[in-house]
Amino acid sequence: MATTLGKLPHGDILKRISQSEHFQSGSFQNIEHTEMLAPNSSYWKMAIKYWQKPNSIRPSSPIPSTKINLKELDANKAQYIWFGHSSYLLLAEGKKILVDPVFSGYASPVPFAVQSFEGTDIYLPEDMPDLDILIITHDHYDHLDYETMLKIHPRTKKIIVPLGVSAHLLSWGVPLTKIIELDWFETKEIDSTITVTATPTRHFSGRSVLRNKSLWCSYVLKLGEYKVFIGGDSGYGSVFESIGKKYGPFDLAFLECGQYGDDWPSIHMRPEETALAAANIGAKSFVPVHWGKFILSLHPWNDPIKRVLAASQNIKLNLQVPKIGESFEFTGSGSVDGWWNFQ
């Protein structure tokens, strides 16, 4: 378990962190004031709610999914494959980019907690193609998975992480030469076809009781003629309008839509806010992620997609809802076949 926790930044990594304007009083800070819990909430109240959790938070039957040979996909065709929650593979311009892969079957320090829904673990690290880039948005267990990282990094050219997250990777044996660590608003040109810019979110970090020792990010990904927004985890706020004005519009956006709750409204968007965020950044199409695989809140498992679908229709947004494992084009017209309509 100690290995799974990773390591806190130290040495040269900590020196660089201390020079960041976003690191103050020993911790990274959100740009917009962000409370971790609502004023009327407490961890004790939350524990009681989780003890009394309703059955609807877990699907009654396996999640529909499909499995394809990822290694045979045409990387020159702009497409993506969602693996549930916040894990997805992007292919375009001959490049293969994997985001926040979690293939261990759980999203916690121990295997018996936060287990994935039945039907969602049809892909393994071994199924992934050799990668040009692996992108991590922050160090929470449902985004940075120790077991998956060990198996995938040897077949990955470059790994992009928020400032401070390299400490975890180095402790797990990832070579320093592979790691690109970014602060907010920092841009890295990977090659002539790929440019990545780290952008802010309203969230937090930490794999233990110590929080915010590493940064949390969204990313602006320029991939040839395409511009993709990788949203990470975030509460709703002015950050989306700012990103839209500075970097938008986007051909495709992946935005958090799930694991929200009344106890933490500032760090996880509600579905209606996800739709607003898509509009704020100027997304031509967007994919709701952070749902459909793990229980990290108390809402019904399919509440996120039902609500964001209604909100998107109200403001005429192009929403894409692929099944787990389905190949979907960047410029797809949307998917509303209702595969999620069961309890």
Please provide a written account of the structure:
The protein has 343 residues and is an alpha/beta fold. It has one domain (11-19, 49-329): Metallo-beta-lactamase, Chain A. The chain has eight helices and 15 strands. The chain has helices spanning 2-5, 11-18, 43-51, 146-152, 166-171, 239-247, 271-281, 303-314; strands at residues 23-24, 27-28, 79-82, 88-92, 95-99, 131-135, 156-162, 179-182, 187-191, 194-199, 218-223, 226-230, 252-256, 286-289, 327-329. The strands form three sheets. The chain has a seven-stranded mixed beta sheet with strand order 8-7-6-5-4-3-15, with no helix packed on it. A six-stranded mixed beta sheet has the order 9-10-11-12-13-14, covered by helices on one side. A two-stranded antiparallel sheet has the order 1-2. The longest helix is centred in the C-terminal third of the chain and has 12 residues, at 303-314. It starts with a helix and ends in a 14-residue tail after the last strand.
CATH secondary-structure class? Alpha Beta
Find the CATH topology. Answer: Metallo-beta-lactamase, Chain A
Q: Mean of the pLDDT scores?
A: 95
Low-confidence stretches: none
Q: Give Rg in angstroms.
A: 19 Å
Residue share in helices?
10-25%
Structural class, from helix and strand content?
alpha/beta
Q: β content, as a range?
A: 15-25%
Could you give the distance between the termini?
34 Å
Which shape, going by the Cα principal axes?
A: globular
What's the order of the H and E elements? HHEEHEEEEHEHEEEEEHEHEHE
Organism: Leptospira meyeri
Protein name: L-ascorbate metabolism protein UlaG (Beta-lactamase superfamily)
Domain Metallo-beta-lactamase: 96-291
InterPro entries: Metallo-B-lactamas (IPR001279), NAPE-PLD (IPR024884), RibonucZ/Hydroxyglut_hydro (IPR036866)
